[in-house]
Write a structure and sequence with these properties.
The chain has 770 residues and is mainly beta. Helices cover 6% and strands 54% of the residues.
Amino acid sequence: MSKKPFLLAATALMCATPLHAQTVSQPQDEEADGGDIVVTAQKRSQRLSEVPIAISAFDAAALERIDATELQRVAQVTPGISIQLQDRLLPGISVRGITSDDTSPASEPRVALFQDGIPITQIASAYAEMFDVNRIEVERGPQSTLHGRSALNGGISVYQQMPEPDLGVDFKAGVGDRGFLLGQAVVNVPVSDNFGVRFGALMRQRDGALADADGEGTYNNVNSQAYRLTSRFEPTANLRFSLAATYDVDDTDSGGAFKSNVYLPRDQTTGEVIGDLDFWSPTHLSTLPGMADAYSKREILGLSGTTELDLNDIFRLTSITGYRWYKACQAGDIDGTTTDIIAYDLCNGGEQVSEELRLNIDRTGMFEGFVGASYFNASNYQMTDLGTDERAAALLFSGSLLRSAPMGLTTNQIVGALGATASNYKALHLDRRRTDADIETFDVFADGTFHLTDKFEAFVGGRVTWDRKDIAMQVTTPLGVSRLTGGGLLMTMTTGGAVVSGDHNSSVITGRAGLRYEFSPEFNLYAVYGLGKRPEVIDLGPTGAANILPSESLSSFEVGSKFRAFGGRLTGDIAAYHFRYSDFQTYQRNQDRLVPVNAGKAEATGLEAQANWRVISGLTVFGSYSYNHARFTTGAYDGNRFRNAPDHKFALGFEASVPTGLGDLSFVPVYTWQSKIFFSDDNDRADLQVRSRAAFSDTAVDEFQPAYGLLNARLGLNIANGPWSINLIGDNLTDEKFIVDAGNTGDSFGMPTFIVGARRTVRLEVSAHF
């Protein structure tokens, strides 16, 4: 980690001259009348029902109710959003069918993620522990005007809890099956009337769902630590400073849970079959001799500071600075078999600084809004090693290895099948690619709301983005050229193994315009048109030739209603939308590389609804539903669904609480369901499945997840007249079997791999507040 940028960012934060890209001041009260959460989606504090955006918001109480210790749980109960969790380093986050999971250093996210207002532009650093969270806001539809180009089709913002006025200490400890352990503590210290500090630490462990056939461990384990620090200083009535710092560590010797459905697991010494082709039964995976053993390690540091200065009763100046650094590495067996064929070692890393200066104009007469400018700079890298046993590759490329399915061949049998020619090939060939990208962005933006009458308002905004990308790539063979090809084996070497580079400048204009009419304080309607764009991206080929991926464009029209009834006991909203997408960039795998493909145009029509009903004292029912008919409309993908995009998705739950002699007893079951999804935009169609060589023949349409549902529940007791509470928590209580990914690198060689989702778990947590 470079120390100079860290010190510069830390100095800027401590000097309180930050430039913040996402939020205004934290709302003083988390809920308005009727449980209407206060949010800052439009860069000012508003009741959720006042915001003319399709938005879901969760305060600390709501997050605890659904046991949202991970962002995936929030996605399960939120309409229009899905998270594909292959592992914590490579999540796929989808909003209204548009997925953001590209790991390229120069990638452009389609869905914005923010931690305390700082944009997270690299997916490998996006997924972190969630504890001591103040609130989460999930916005759907183009939000580029409000939050920048990375919010092409929505955004997710996580805000840590700021210091509170009273001294307090919170503890939580948990134990459960599948090796679950949890320890968590938060300390809140009000140093003075105008200065406070809050610090939290967490440790969490959990075994994965796929067991090792040798009886020693599981795959996709979790072993994480997280630390949170926030502070607030208000030296005068019109000047406020705040700081939020996060540090996350994942460290496990467990590899990814890739499992082949082509080859049976076999003991490599005896040849004995030690498993079956069932995705959920044990298998054994190992890296190649000479490569790193399976592991997963990641560090993420995030710093965010905010200064707010009230110039007068109308104008407020907000400046925020952000710094983020991460390194995420993992290694493992990528072919999903017990035979030594292909293994990988992958590292992503980078650091970024972001600054924004914004002038908010509070309502005076008809108008309120803001103008601002921002700067973003990031340096990212990715290094990938693909190791191959050339002897196995020789049979694989000839088609002989595939013909041995489902028994497959052990390494000894492969050597025997090759005979004397086996000595011509290396037991380990290594292809290595390093890609570096520097990104620099400037933005200017403005947004305003015009209150035409007491009930009728119009809003309009726009943003201009100037973007520069410099990219460099080098592909080498550290152990010498392949004896099969005379060059790279699974990668194409850059010319002479040298570094090739390129750069590109681009600019985009995005905007929104809409109307909102308030029939009464309990019911309003809105309509909004939004234009989101993803800037052009440069993609380098092995010769250094630059392929410029055109700017993606999404135009969306949405109408919606927000309502409150029965004295605020029933709250909810409903929205219908239609969007058109042009120049949608997807990827097809060509050996090692994900080659960009312009899939052309796409359209989606959808409906989203969510509601919360406090039926009687002690009983609240909540739920959500979304329908999203998203399809490609041109080119080879015409008629295909977007990947990771269910047509239907719903969640239903309730919270019941009754007083007992011991204290308040509560029960919260939540059932979530989604319809069928595909894991790639090609929908696993036989005519679109890419084959690196003619010998590979994966024409089976099996890389999808049928409809399924999950039942989670929490049974809790808040002990009377004391600080203690006890919770018994169950996830996937029906032990539903489902997969979270399919295809992967092995799909390019006729042997796709599959990754299973989490199975049933039960845990007991004890917490206390002093």
